[in-house]
Each structure stands twice: as C-alpha cells, then as structure tokens.
Amino acid sequence: MTAVQSSELWYPDDDIILECGKTRFRIHLNILTEHSSVFREMAKISYPSELPSVIPLQDSPCDMYHFLKSMYDASYFQSYSFLNLPIITAVLCLSAKYEAVSLRRRAIDILNTAYPCDLRSWSGASAKHILRSSDEEFFFPVCFYAAAKRPLAEILPKLLSLPLARGDIDELCTQFVVGRENLRDAEIQHVLRFLSPSFMRPGCYNRNSDTLRLQLHSPHALFRLAESGQPYQDWCSMNPSTVGTTLGLCDPCCAAIEREISVGLKTIWKDLPGIFGLPDWWTLKKADCWE
Ligand SMILES: [Zn+2]
C-alpha cells in the first residue's frame, strides 16, 4: 500500500507525519501538542530527535482531515449548519480520543446550540454517518431518529451487521423497531394535531370555510404515504410554514398551524430518548460529561 500526501495538510517544513489509512498529513508538532494532551504526552516520552516521524493511526483519513483542519483554522466550523455535521461529529470523536479539550468544547457548544431544539435538521441525515458517531451516548436518540427515517429494508441489514454480540444486536433491533413505531405514533399525535376538531385557530378570517377545508383534508392526509412514499406527518415536519397555505387557509390559520407543529416537534425531541427506551437527555449528557 502506497501512502499519498494530503493535498492540503502537507507542510513540507513541518515536523510530524500522521498516517491514516493511505493518507499522510504532514503537520506542525507544536500545533498538534498545543491542542491535544495525548500527543503532548507522546511527544514528551517517545519522539526521536530525528524528524519528521511517521505515526500510523487507525482513524479515518476523512475524520482526521476535519480534526486537523479545525486545529489550523479556528473558523473551520464556526457555527452549525447541516453541511457541518460530518465535521462536527469527526471533531467530537477525535477530540475525545486525543483529548483535544478546546476543540471538543467548541463542537459541543455548537451542538448544544443547535440541538435538542432543531429536530427537523436531522430528518435528512445520513443514517450511516449518524450510526458511525454512536460512541457518544448523547447521540443514541439522534442515531435512532435518523435511522427511523430510512426504510426498514435499508436500516435492518446495517443494524444486523454491526460488530456486536448476537444478543446485543437482537436487543438493539428490538429497541429500534419498537421505538420507530412509538416515534410514528408521537408524530401523528403531535405534528398532525392541527387536524383535530379541537385545534384552536385564533383570529381566523373564514371560520366556516377553513374548518370545512381542514375536515375535508383529514382523510386525504392518510393517503399521502401511498401517493408520495412520505408520511404526511413527515412532510408537515419538514414544511411547517407551508402546510396551511397548501390547504388554502387564511393567514392566522397558517400561523397557528406552523406554531402548533413547532411546539409538537419540540415535544417529540424532548421525549425522543424515552421513545427509544433511553434515559432522558439530561442523563445522557451527564453520562458523557457534557455538563
Ligand atoms: Zn382561517
């Protein structure tokens, strides 16, 4: 196997080479040791005086790239956006492993800002990526959530191929399938509450006709899954601001529906660990020493 130089993280005058899989990163020892106490200890004890040294590591080159890039560029992931998710999870995993406290703090702060209130962002998450980051207990509910949004036929083979003992896999699959059903029930209950006759629409301009529109729409919502492959509650979760307009309702009704969906999503997110049979968020965070 021939190792290749990282096209970006290769500073010819620098001290140390990290080798992950086929990729080599040539970087400053002082930057590495400034951020990571594991590398700081390694440097104290065992580095030969002749540099550069090549250190083989077992980490994914892609994760290592994000981790190192974050050390060199403080603005590399300044805020949460969905596109940053792979970077944040990579930094989270490697900063835990190599004890890079400030980077880990930054990743956690960003996640704490974005979650647990931003449920919708997870809907499109790649279940494969999420499952990979599942060494953090705090992520378990999120892993389950992202996986529950994929077809069972896609997810079950992945769960069955996890490197776990048979009994653990059985338990995990049961937990997942039961939680997936609980999640669907919770979403119908909380996201589609606006279809209930008791749903209040303060300030409605056209009370009679809007009430009729909602009543007529309720049965149609059931058929949406068959027509589009996407449950109506999922579509509403992703498009809360357009639900009312697609039904032709007045502005106050549209706003009331959007608010109701937002409240419903927050409730689901708050309950998400319990839906999948896990301890609540606070306990999960504490277990990971996030607070
Ligand atoms: Zn109205």
Set out the fold topology.
Elements: E1 4-10, E2 16-20, E3 23-27, H1 29-35, H2 37-46, E4 53-57, H3 61-72, H4 85-97, H5 101-114, H6 127-132, H7 140-148, H8 152-160, H9 166-191, H10 207-228, H11 232-238, H12 243-246, H13 251-275, H14 281-287
Parallel strand pairs: 1-3, 2-4
Antiparallel strand pairs: 2-3
Zinc ion is lined by residues 201, 204-206, 210, 249-250, 252-253.
Give a written overview of the molecule.
The protein is an alpha/beta fold and 291 residues long. The chain folds into 2 domains: 111 residues, Potassium Channel Kv1.1, Chain A; 155 residues, no CATH class. The protein contains 14 helices and 4 strands. Strands 1-3-2-4 form a 4-stranded mixed sheet. Strand 2 and strand 3 form a beta hairpin. The site of zinc ion (ZN) has 9 residues, from helix 13.
Short structural description:
This protein has 291 residues and is α/β, with parallel strands linked by helices.
Question: Could you list some keywords that capture this structure?
Answer:
291 residues, alpha/beta, Potassium Channel Kv1.1, Chain A, 4-stranded mixed sheet, 14 helices, 4 strands, 59% helix, 8% strand, elongated, binds zinc ion
User: How would a textbook summarize the main sheet?
Assistant: 4 strands, mixed
- From the N-terminal CA to the C-terminal CA, the straight-line distance is 43 Å
Quote the beta fraction: 5-15%
Structural class: alpha/beta
Number of domains: 2
The helix content is 55-70%
Poorly predicted regions are 116-135
Please count the helical segments: 14
Radius of gyration: 24 Å
Biggest sheet strand order reads 1-3-2-4
| SSE topology string | EEEHHEHHHHHHHHHHHH
What is the tally of beta strands?
A: 4
Average of per-residue pLDDT values: 79
The hetero compounds bound to this protein are: zinc ion
The rough form would be described as elongated
